[in-house]
Amino acid sequence: MVRRMEAAELGAVAEIWLEANLDAHDFVPAIYWRSQLEPVREAISKAEVYVYEEDGAILGFIGLDGETVEGIFVKKEARSRGIGKALLDRAREGRDLLELRVYSENWPAVKFYYREGFTLFGQDVDRATGQDESLMAWWA
């Protein structure tokens, strides 16, 4: 089930964020992700966040800032089960546009967004990590 995150779930959601980044972005030093945990916790607490819950456990989440997808994060053991798609489908409700940045080297994520109808419209570099980013958008 996809639903709005409750404040008490911030810790669990932040832990999913850290674990997913460490796993999916091994091309970025782990110390970077760990150093970002507290600022990200703060950002998550202020963002529009939806969680995917199953049997009382949070398995993933999507963070939004207006029409910007700040990220979709799913626990490693729960990937490839349609959770990311369910979260993205919830984000699309009531919106005609979604934009995002994804590390170009994170090919599984790039492929997921293409499959979900996103289009590449630019390239950039993440100043914090020096990694190439693909700028993608979806229109209704």
* Tally of DSSP helical segments: 5
Unreliable runs, pLDDT <50, ≥5 residues?
A: none
- Beta-strand content: 25-35%
Basic shape: globular
Structural class: alpha+beta
E-strand count: 7
Helix content: 25-40%
Query: What radius of gyration results from the CA coordinates?
Result: 14 Å
Terminal CA distance: 23 Å
| Major sheet details | 7 strands, mixed
Q: What's the rounded overall pLDDT mean?
A: 97
The succession of helices and strands, N to C, reads: EHHHEEEHEHEE
Sheet with most strands: strand arrangement: 1-2-3-4-5-7-6
Domain N-acetyltransferase: 1-140
Organism: Candidatus Scatomorpha merdipullorum
Pfam family, one: Acetyltransf_7
InterPro entries: Acyl_CoA_acyltransferase, GNAT_dom
In words, what does this structure look like?
By secondary structure, the protein is of the alpha+beta class. A seven-stranded mixed β-sheet has the order 1-2-3-4-5-7-6, sandwiched between helices. A hairpin with a 6-residue loop joins strand 6 and strand 7. The model has no long low-confidence stretch (mean pLDDT 97). The radius of gyration is 14 Å and the shape is globular. It has five helices and seven strands; from the N terminus they run E-H-H-H-E-E-E-H-E-H-E-E.
In short:
Pfam families: Acetyltransf_7 (PF13508). The protein has helices at 10-24, 30-35, 37-46, 83-92, 107-115, and strands spanning 2-4, 48-54, 57-65, 68-74, 97-103, 119-125, 132-139. The protein has 140 residues and is an alpha+beta fold.
